[in-house]
User: Which sequence fits this backbone?
């Protein structure tokens, strides 16, 4: 178990599903209380956290909306005396042919993934600074280093998150706060399996298997649990001297 988790609280966005839910479960097992934030009902995640013996409260929030984030942050601060850890998992990844990438579609994707990461992280920086300890984790994607089509706004948002992570780390290093990105490969979550397979694949399972076999050194399909250890480490005391970095957790698909 990583050091320094006991008595901490983590706020996780996108906590109703996929990676956010797996991270909530893992951090709860590590001894962390959880504020579960999502557009959708996160009560299943709250149940998982409580089953692991920790406190959990869910908050409905649209991370792309400054007003919604401000309201959620005020409620979260009331429910928990301190938010020590922020994990930004809320994200959308629609595959949109370039000719359909309107400005509205660009704003929807960049607004959720990049603006949302900015708004939620910044809401909890003052408290972390005052206490001299904090961990912020962001979610990039292996698509930023791969040949994929239909993901222009998505890849821009996910590399924007890397830039945000690096620059914020420089600001917050003197205050005991680290900021790091995790870069997953194609991972079997409700969000990834719920969309139609890319051109050339009959099912999502075919697409998952093709990526695992052709592009990864480790030839099996990535699952949320493959990423949970990285989140545990990057939010602990064991990673106190690591900041501004991007950790690829993708079976060896992309080398940074
Ligand atoms: N699954 C993958 O293959 C993969 C690969 C690389 C990166 N990622 C990134 O990991 C993160 C989590 O993805 P996932 O696969 O678990 O997806 P998911 O769809 O299973 O979960 C995402 C969650 O985010 C929530 N959400 C979406 N928009 C929101 C908003 N505006 N405000 C609040 N919540 C919102 C959804 O309701 C959902 O519960 C995303 O940022 C995604 O880009 C996923």
Assistant:
């Amino acid at each position: 178990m990583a050091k320094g988790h006991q008595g901490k609280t983590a706020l996780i966005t996108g906590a109703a599903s996929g990676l956010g839910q797996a991270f909530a479960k893992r951090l709860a097992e590590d001894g962390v209380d959880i504020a579960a934030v999502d557009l959708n009902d996160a009560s299943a995640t709250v149940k998982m956290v409580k089953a692991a013996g920790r406190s959990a409260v869910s908050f409905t929030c649209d991370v792309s909306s400054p007003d919604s984030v401000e309201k959620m942050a005020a409620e979260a601060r009331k429910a928990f005396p301190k938010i020590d850890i922020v994990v930004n998992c809320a994200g959308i990844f629609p595959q949109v042919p370039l000719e359909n990438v309107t400005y509205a579609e660009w704003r929807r994707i960049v607004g959720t993934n990049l603006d949302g990461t900015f708004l939620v992280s910044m809401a909890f920086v003052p408290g972390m600074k005052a206490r001299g300890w904090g961990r912020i984790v962001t979610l990039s994607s292996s698509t930023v280093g791969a040949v994929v089509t239909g993901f222009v706004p998505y890849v821009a948002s996910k590399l924007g998150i890397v830039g945000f992570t690096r620059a914020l780390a420089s600001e917050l290093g003197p205050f005991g706060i680290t900021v790091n990105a995790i870069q997953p490969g194609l991972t079997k979550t409700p969000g990834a399996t719920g969309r139609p397979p890319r051109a050339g694949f009959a099912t999502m399972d075919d697409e998952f298997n093709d990526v695992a076999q052709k592009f990864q050194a480790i030839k099996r399909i990535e699952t949320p649990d493959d990423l949970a250890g990285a989140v545990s480490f990057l939010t602990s005391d064991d990673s106190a001297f690591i900041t501004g970095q991007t950790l690829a957790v993708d079976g060896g698909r992309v080398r940074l």
Q: What stands out?
A: The pocket of nicotinamide-adenine-dinucleotide is lined by residues 13-14, 16-20, 38-40, 61-64, 89-93, 112-113, 116, 139, 141, 184, 186-187, 189-192 (CB under 6 Å).
